[in-house]
Amino acid sequence: MIEDITIGQYVPGNSPIHKLDPRTKLSTVLVYMVALFVVNTFTGYLLVGLFTAAIIALSALPLRFVLRGLRPLLVILIFTLVLNIFLTPGEVLAQAGPVAVTREGLLRGTFMALRLVFLVLGTSLLTLTTSPISLTDGLERLLAPGKRIGIPAHELAMMMSIALRFIPTLIEETQKIMKAQAARGADFESGNVFQRARNMVPLLVPLFVSAFRRADDLALAMEARCYRGGEGRTRMKEMHMSGRDFAALAVMFVFTVVAIYTRTLGGKVF
Question: Distance between CA 1 and CA 145 in Å, rounded?
Fold first, then answer.
């Protein structure tokens, strides 16, 4: 399950999505996330699904690889769905003693599960199609106006990009520790969900030690290269907005408007 986490990984490519300016991708992902919390009908989620499928197709990424990132969410999705179905009051569809399944709970649980799925897919596509350096530069440029009120744009962008970059590194380290402990008799596969979660506890100590060691090595490497923050820093590749970026922003604007319109449909489905 650990190797199924795709957030933080970068897959080099030459697709139209890869070629977009990182500022464009960051802005569109932010708007996409807002749109997810706006839609509240099946029509709206159908629109989001079609839009997400189109972006995956344009990114030229293997569909199975992109969807693989949803596997770690399976337990959370099931828990969210069940929790909403049985705890949301409304029109009762089925009842067994004190436990009742309501129509409102079923709809809310389905919408919440779909929202989580599309949220993970959208953020995964951002990191899969944007290199960590480009992501840092784009985030810093977007936060640059905040310098006037004391927001450390470069430091925030650097911290977020390092955090994203360390996700696949820590996953790889976790896999190595699991294989080493399995070779010594540790069992991570048998038992129910709670037993398997408890068996993962011995991984935490060596994983934290490894993470602190890597952080210390990174700090020493940055000091050895005379890193002093963003002041006076130059870039090998300057970012430039092109026609495709403005086209992408226009498409995102239309998508948002239509998503907001689907909210006015109320109870209508399709």
Answer: 40
pLDDT tens profile 55-82 = 999 998 888 888 887 877 787 888 888 8
Alpha carbons 203 and 178: distance in angstroms, whole number: 7
Which tokens is 218 given?
A: 């990174």
DSSP string, the chain: -GGG--TT------SHHHHS-HHHHHHHHHHHHHHHHH--SHHHHHHHHHHHHHHHHHHT--HHHHHGGGGGGHHHHHHHHHHHHHHS-SSEEEEETTEEEEHHHHHHHHHHHHHHHHHHHHHHHHHHSS-HHHHHHHHHHHHGGGGGGT--HHHHHHHHHHHHHHHHHHHHHHHHHHHHHHHTT--SSSS-HHHHHHHTGGGHHHHHHHHHHHHHHHHHHHHHTT---STT---SS-----HHHHHHHHHHHHHHHHHHHHHTTTT---
Closest CA to 113 of 79, 138, 139: 79
State both tokens at 92: 């009762």
Q: Please say whether the beta carbons of 259 and 47 come within 8 A.
A: yes
pTM of structure: 0.74
Q: How far apart are CA 88 and CA 108, in angstroms?
A: 8
